[in-house]
Inverse folding.
């Protein structure tokens, strides 16, 4: 494996970041479309507030601009591994609940799941390039669901997709930071600086 | 003693002459001018259905000694109506600002109080020195799905009113327009104009938070704009300009991923390069002028027709025409 700071590794990193940014952009666009479909098919109110749900990775970050490249990658990887499991769960629930009655929603969920899986792999590749290697997936999978009623499961699904849409935006920003030349790859103006 | 008294437009106002008895002989003045006794009830001054013109200094003097017994400054005004509040981030991801105004004047001093709540936290909104009706907030978190709730309360001596807006972090992102827009002709190219611009200076980190741009242009003689969306770069070459016609050009900006388009930039004008006219005899000049008119206003190449408003391309450049533009171009030639 090339050293993390060798020219070829730097080129590879920039290439992976560029492709990752495009992946994240496409993923976000598809998640936003999926959100519209999900809200409509599940009979939900698009403006409904959903409280933070255990096991759903929250995109919100304090001192985001101060994170190192490795921190960004690790947080992204943990999030997308969780989303991969959550979406798989949603897909299974949707099939059990509706069977083949709503194939369109199932297909859209499956397509986003595929993109999340691809993005997860992308992040693992970037971590390998950092000479770190991705952490093992110990305790993988979302926490076992308490027995939720149908409506609660629908709301949870809404929360998952909303948070995933935020993550897709954040990931593109994270990868742009990572693609910047220089150590740390995270030299955006501090949020603490006066405007 | 002197003080300020606030009264609502249309109210009936009764002023007492300090500690003077009701039946004391007094004289009232308004801004130094004696007030007619018909407005007095004993020593009380009665002003019915006051209006804005009756604001001023009212003084009461003891009848015989002309000692000043009471003075007040009457300010006639209105309680505040619901204020208008907007919040916007033109410097994402640093923070956002909120600005406000009253939809109708109150004619008396107002004070404003703003509260910004995110999750359970109250955030500090630092008031700007100028303009006075604005304050700014620094983001403590980014990428949050929790909405911000901003409440503005306006208070004056006659009442108070408030308004609340709630919004997502992404929804209020709107950059300032691009700066330093320049449009130049391209030598030896009668159909081209080179346009360049800069990121708005208020956008703190265009490298990490890149902007995309929307360019619109039209010849001055036509009303229909042509639009081009550009996903990167701060320059573009227009290749389908009408030869010899002056163009007006503007650019707008938007964060690549979130928020809304900026306002249009300051408009710039440019005319494509034209060949220097040759020196001719009188007869030849007539012929030349006629043929030059017919050839200089060539219709642009036929491009994709799309619906009005469908101006956003994907990836690279998308150009829209309306069929009427071609016909209008020929029509203008013969005006």
């Amino acid at each position: 494996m090339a050293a993390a700071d060798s020219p070829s590794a730097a080129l590879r990193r920039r290439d992976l970041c560029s492709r990752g940014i495009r992946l994240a952009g496409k993923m976000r666009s598809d998640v936003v479309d999926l959100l519209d479909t999900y809200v409509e098919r599940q009979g939900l109110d698009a403006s409904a507030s959903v409280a933070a749900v255990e096991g759903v990775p929250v995109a919100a970050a304090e001192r985001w601009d101060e994170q190192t490249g490795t921190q960004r990658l690790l947080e992204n990887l943990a999030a997308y591994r969780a989303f991969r499991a959550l979406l798989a769960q949603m897909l299974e629930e949707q099939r059990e609940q509706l069977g083949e009655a709503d194939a369109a929603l199932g297909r859209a969920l499956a397509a986003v799941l595929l993109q999340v899986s691809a993005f997860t792999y992308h992040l693992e590749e970037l971590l390998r390039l950092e000479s770190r290697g991705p952490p093992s997936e110990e305790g993988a999978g979302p926490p076992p669901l308490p027995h939720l009623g149908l409506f609660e499961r629908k709301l949870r699904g809404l929360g998952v997709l909303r948070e995933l849409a935020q993550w897709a935006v954040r990931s593109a920003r994270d990868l742009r930071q990572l693609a910047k030349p220089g150590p740390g790859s995270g030299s955006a103006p501090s949020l603490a600086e006066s405007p | 003693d002197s003080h300020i008294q606030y009264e609502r437009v249309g109210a009936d106002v009764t002023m007492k002459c300090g500690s003077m008895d009701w039946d004391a002989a007094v004289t009232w003045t308004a801004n130094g001018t004696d007030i007619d006794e018909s407005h007095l009830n004993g020593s009380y001054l009665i002003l019915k259905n006051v209006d804005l013109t009756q604001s001023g200094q009212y003084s009461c003097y003891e009848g015989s000694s002309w000692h000043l017994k009471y003075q007040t400054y009457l300010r006639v005004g209105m309680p505040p109506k619901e204020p208008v509040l907007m919040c916007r981030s033109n410097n994402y991801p640093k923070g956002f600002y909120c600005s406000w105004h009253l939809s109708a004047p109150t004619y008396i001093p107002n004070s404003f109080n703003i509260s910004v709540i995110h999750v359970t936290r109250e955030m500090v909104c630092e008031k700007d020195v100028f303009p006075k009706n604005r304050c700014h907030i620094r983001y403590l978190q980014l990428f949050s799905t929790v909405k911000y709730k901003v409440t503005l309360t306006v208070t004056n001596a006659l009442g108070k009113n408030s308004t609340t807006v709630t919004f997502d972090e992404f929804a209020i992102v709107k950059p300032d327009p691009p700066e330093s827009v320049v449009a130049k002709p391209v030598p030896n190219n009668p159909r081209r104009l080179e346009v360049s611009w800069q990121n708005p200076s208020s956008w703190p980190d265009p490298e990490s938070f890149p902007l995309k741009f929307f360019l619109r242009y039209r010849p001055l003689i036509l009303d229909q704009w042509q639009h081009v969306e550009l996903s990167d770069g701060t320059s573009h070459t227009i290749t389908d300009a009408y030869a010899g016609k002056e163009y007006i050009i503007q650019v707008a900006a938007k964060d690549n991923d979130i928020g809304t388009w900026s306002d249009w930039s300051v408009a710039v004008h440019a005319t494509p390069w034209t060949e220097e006219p040759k020196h001719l005899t009188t007869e030849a000049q007539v012929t030349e002028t006629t043929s030059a008119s017919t050839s200089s206003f060539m219709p642009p190449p036929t491009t994709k027709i799309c619906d009005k408003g469908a101006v956003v391309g994907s990836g690279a450049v998308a150009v829209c025409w309306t069929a009427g533009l071609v016909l209008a171009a020929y029509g203008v030639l013969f005006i």
In short: The first helix of chain B runs from residue 282 to 296. Chain B touches chain A through 23 residues (CB under 8 Å).
